[in-house]
Specification:
Elements (H helix, E strand, L loop, with lengths): L1 H24 L8 H8 L5 E2 L2 E2 H18 L4 H33 L4 H27 L1
Antiparallel strand pairs: 1-2
Helix pairs in contact: 1-3, 1-5, 3-4, 4-5
Length: about 140
């Protein structure tokens, strides 16, 4: 059940990141919700080495989804998938904390879609911890 929750969260994260990437690349910062999204998405912090942060996040969500789907097909992912998803979600949460700091104290604007991504990552981290704990108890 926890794996299925992570799969759904990964898909939601992919959709959110795809929209933010579209807004950054195609629409040049014009978001459907409020001005904060546009301000954040056009800030210098919205890209890393010329790559939109949303695209990097989307790639991380895709990797987590692939790992979750491969857990039933591969011994390697069956054994290590929980740790991989935990590690990626932990990195995502830590980076989201940094980005939220930037939104609040440097950019002075909040992007609702960025907040959604942060919430998804926190939920994924919590669920992945629950999975690891269950795995340790059954071992």
């Amino acid at each position: 059940m926890l794996r299925k929750i992570l799969i759904v969260l990964s898909i939601l994260g992919i959709l959110d990141a795809a929209y933010l990437t579209y807004v950054k690349v195609i629409e040049d910062g014009v978001c459907a919700v409020g001005g904060g999204c546009a301000i954040v998405n056009t800030s210098p912090y919205a890209s890393l080495w010329g790559i939109p942060i949303a695209a990097i996040g989307g790639a991380a969500y895709v990797v987590m989804l692939i790992v979750l789907l491969l857990e039933e097909r591969s011994d390697f992912f069956a054994i290590n998938g929980g740790l991989i998803v935990f590690g990626l979600s932990l990195i995502g949460v830590l980076y989201s904390v940094y980005l939220t700091y930037l939104e609040l104290y440097v950019i002075h604007a909040i992007c609702p879609f960025c907040v959604i991504s942060a919430v998804i990552l926190v939920a994924m981290l919590i669920v992945s911890i629950m999975r690891l704990r269950n795995d340790l108890q059954t071992a």
